[in-house]
Amino acid sequence: MSETASQPKSALRRAISRPIFERTFSINSEQAIRVIRDSYHRLMVSLYAIDVILRIIGREETVDEIESIVGQMIAECAEQLQQEKMRLEKLKADNGITETPTYTHPREFVAKIASPQIAQFVELIRLLDQLMIVMDTLWLCQVISNKHCIEARYQWQQRLQRLANKIVTMERRAHQAAYEQGHGEEVRLARQESGLLDEAAKLTEGEDSVVDEIDSDKAGGQ
Q1: Is the entire prediction scored with pTM above 0.85?
Q2: Where are the alpha helices (DSSP H) in the chain?
Q3: Could you say which of 64, 74, 167, 192 has the lowest number of CB atoms within 10 Å?
Q4: Phi, psi angles (nearest 5°) of residue 50
């Protein structure tokens, strides 16, 4: 057997050249930073798998159904964020507040847009950040109480993280179904070739110092 023939299948397949936008945003609020840290990178892989990888193995109907559901969930969450942001902005205007706080530790968020639905979730993170800024403004100006602000911050952060978990679970089930039909290795290799798994790992490693700092504040619940 030749040396080439003896190599594992994964070593013989080339990396996929995929289109990607790289967009950099400044994220201010602790809640949006935590969604990025805890949910974004794993979700990025799942959304790419839904949009692209599962189509490679010919599961068009399944992927179309999942995409429709995911798109609807993201749209509903975006609408809720927008409505709450508008409500709080009106409250801010009614109280004659024109100031906007600065933040002590904003983060630079480099978003890797490898599918349309990744772009949609990135916009959710940005909307969450904008909502938190308005909420923090009202809290600092004593329009809303400390207790209410803490609870609302946590609830909105959890809303995005629960949405991310639902999407990841849906993609895993589709992956499992593909595996049961004999396509599991194709999906695994396509994930590997996409580069997203390695990319997410590198991004997470690069955030270790940030995570340590954030974790030290997490016990405060804000």
Answers
A1: no
A2: 3-6, 9-12, 30-35, 41-48, 54-56, 60-94, 116-140, 146-180, 184-194, 196-206, 208-218
A3: 64
A4: -65, -50
